[in-house]
Write a sequence for this structure.
């Protein structure tokens, strides 16, 4: 079993095999996310009662919180792939790390915009230089830095290595974002949802949130494979296997 | 107080960004495969030209 897993992992490092794998599995991950999104959104918008203080505006948290968690998770994963790519020089890990950046940036944009939209009626302002908001904005700049650095160097492998290093250094920011509401006086609310232990949110309101969290994970897997496939094809342009595959599909 | 506008705006942002995230890599893959196909066709055409027809001094 372990031997087979290692064998499969080695095979995944081959660009033609990775292309086949990504093309086959990416649509399935997208498809798996759709019923979860549909059910989660239906629950969030139509079933869950309005909050007694925030009214219907609290429904924004069903997209804001999963997106915020994804913005941190994707950065951590990008740094992990980056570290593997730097230590073992595995090309597919470079590709996966670089594919994480635009997806993580997208989730960070969702987090910042939906938070801002929620903040206007609740806090009376679109934006405040609050520790949580500011550190999340810095995270977006880090994502943009990784994307920019990867695009700025012609040699793809050198570019990926430089961008992976930036991702690894940027990991320092993740605990700062996570504990910003604890370390400093913050307008942003503290932790209300706990994976371990009791959440301070009512049980009837938690289920759609977890559905959305799982849905965004599946979406991310689909998007990651799709973007990694595109980068793999770009790097392999002109190679015989790609020409043969293109001829066959014509 | 109804917060419909704010909720609608937030969900619109969510849908638009995820739609962008879905569409962009698909367009990239389609373009890269089309380029590879065109490259293969050009290579085949170049290989099919008879040697005698080549210009010589």
């Amino acid at each position: 079993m372990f031997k087979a897993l290692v064998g499969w992992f080695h095979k995944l490092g081959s660009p033609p095999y990775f292309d086949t794998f990504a093309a086959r599995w990416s649509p399935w991950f997208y498809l798996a996310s759709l019923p979860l999104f549909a059910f989660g959104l239906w629950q969030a918008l139509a079933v869950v009662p309005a909050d007694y203080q925030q009214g219907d505006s609290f429904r924004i948290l069903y997209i804001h919180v999963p997106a915020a968690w994804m913005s941190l998770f994707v950065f951590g994963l990008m740094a992990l792939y980056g570290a593997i790519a730097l230590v073992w020089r595995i090309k597919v890990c470079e590709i996966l790390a670089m594919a994480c950046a635009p997806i993580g940036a997208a989730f960070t944009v969702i987090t910042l915009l939906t938070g801002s939209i929620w903040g206007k009626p609740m806090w009376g302002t679109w934006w405040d230089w609050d520790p949580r908001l500011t550190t999340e904005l810095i995270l977006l700049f880090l994502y943009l830095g990784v994307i920019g650095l990867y695009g700025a160097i012609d040699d793809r492998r050198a570019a990926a290595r430089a961008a992976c290093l930036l991702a690894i250094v940027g990991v320092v920011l993740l605990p700062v974002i996570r504990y910003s509401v604890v370390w400093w006086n913050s307008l942003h609310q503290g932790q209300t949802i706990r994976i371990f232990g009791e959440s301070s949110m009512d049980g009837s309101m938690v289920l759609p949130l977890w559905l959305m969290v799982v849905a965004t994970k599946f979406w991310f897997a689909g998007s990651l494979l799709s973007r990694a496939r595109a980068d793999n094809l770009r790097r392999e342009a002109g190679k015989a296997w790609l020409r043969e595959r293109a001829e066959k599909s014509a | 107080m109804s917060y419909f506008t704010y909720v609608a705006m937030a969900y619109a942002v969510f849908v638009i960004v995820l739609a962008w995230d879905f569409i962009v890599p698909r367009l990239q893959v389609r373009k890269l495969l089309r380029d590879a196909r065109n490259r293969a066709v050009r290579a085949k055409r170049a290989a099919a030209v008879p040697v005698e027809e080549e210009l010589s001094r």
